[in-house]
């Protein structure tokens, strides 16, 4: 699922509530009946910035969550870290410091670090927004490849309508406070998807127009769209 909305509508706040980093002022949030906390065992979080530890190698950055959660022996943790680095195409960079990697590679490390915890729900807060268009497209494809074999739920925040359509099965549009969700659009494009074929599908253009109209409504009104 992708979430679209203008700046200030609460997209990142929503993820911080779902992750347990923030507490709701009213009501409660549960996953499988369990209240959410930052240490919730089924959650992973990929931030806008990779937030890697510069003094640790790439492999030790991926291993960090496993070490903090005491999952397995040191040998098992390092084997798992290697596996997830292989999954994101960075096995050869395992012993490099983060500063020697490109921006796209650092974000791959951040993704591998979250995947290593094997979450059932992965929260992604505009993880590719700061990257150039070619790198962003490549990481979109990489995410779809990993997701197709992983079979878990991803909640993806983005400002980019095309990115939301390309990645998601459903797109939610958030309105400006206090309106909340103003639209939900099903993305019926076939899978597997690829940049050329999927974007050339006439349905892709129709969905872009539909979501553009929903965003335009949000920008001109604080009332929920019915």
UniProtKB/TrEMBL annotation:
Per the record, the coiled-coil ranges are: none
Q: Which UniProt keywords apply?
A: ATP-binding, Nucleotide-binding, Plasmid, Transport
User: What is a single Pfam family found in this protein's UniProt entry?
Assistant: ABC_tran
Q: Which source organism does the UniProt entry give? A: Rhizobium indigoferae
One of the record's GO molecular function terms: ATP binding
Out of the domains of life, which is the source?
A: Bacteria
Q: What lineage does UniProt assign to this protein's organism?
A: Bacteria, Pseudomonadati, Pseudomonadota, Alphaproteobacteria, Hyphomicrobiales
Q: Which PROSITE patterns match?
A: ABC_TRANSPORTER_1 (PS00211), ABC_TRANSPORTER_2 (PS50893)
Q: What residues does the ABC transporter domain cover?
A: 1-201
State the name under which the record lists this protein.
ABC transporter ATP-binding protein
- Transport as UniProt keyword: yes
- What InterPro entries does UniProt report for this protein, alphabetically? AAA+_ATPase, ABC_transporter-like_ATP-bd, ABC_transporter-like_CS, ABC_transporter_ATP-bind, P-loop_NTPase
Family membership noted in the UniProt record:
Belongs to the ABC transporter superfamily.
Q: Does the keyword Transport apply?
A: yes
